[in-house]
Amino acid sequence: MTAIKAAPARAMLSVLQEALMIFLLEGFSDDIVALAARGHVTREDYKDVLLPRIEAALKAHPKVRLYYEIGPDFGGFAPGALWEDFVVGMEHLTRWERVAVITDVAWINLATAAFTFMMPGRVRTFETRDAPQAKAWIESR
């Protein structure tokens, strides 16, 4: 009876996961906000997935780090998502210790390079194949 009830719950979880375009990644210390983006990222993705994790990290640590994988299936940001990204970045500007952006999406690399001067912390971009080096860099103390 339990297995029969669990199947619809698993199916619903699968549907919810398909709808989300930002995923939190595990295996990082709690001062590192680690995520992956795919598809078309919306404002709701930021508000429902990313912001709670960032707020928890900022509450627990004076400085935080961001590990951000943007996959080849990334379709862009909705205007509301771009605004949320800007607000989150600027609101806590001095608390970002390191940011690693992992992507092969050319315009993301260019945009990251263009705004790096505004960040007091260190920012680096990595190609997708160099994700292990990005993880080592973001975790290094």
The total count of helices amounts to 5
Q: Kindly state the percentage of residues in helix.
A: 40-55%
SSE string, helices as H and strands as E: HEEHEHEHEH
Main beta sheet = 5 strands, mixed
Largest sheet strand order: 1-2-3-4-5
Mean pLDDT reading = 83
| Portion in beta strands | 25-35%
Radius of gyration: 16 Å
Distance between the termini: 50 Å
Poorly predicted ranges? 9-18
Structural class: alpha/beta
Cα shape: globular
Can you count the beta strands? Answer: 5
Question: What's the helix and strand layout?
Answer:
Layout: H1 2-19, E1 22-24, E2 32-41, H2 43-60, E3 64-77, H3 79-91, E4 96-103, H4 106-115, E5 122-126, H5 131-139
Parallel strand pairs: 2-3, 3-4, 4-5
Antiparallel strand pairs: 1-2
Helix pairs in contact: 2-3
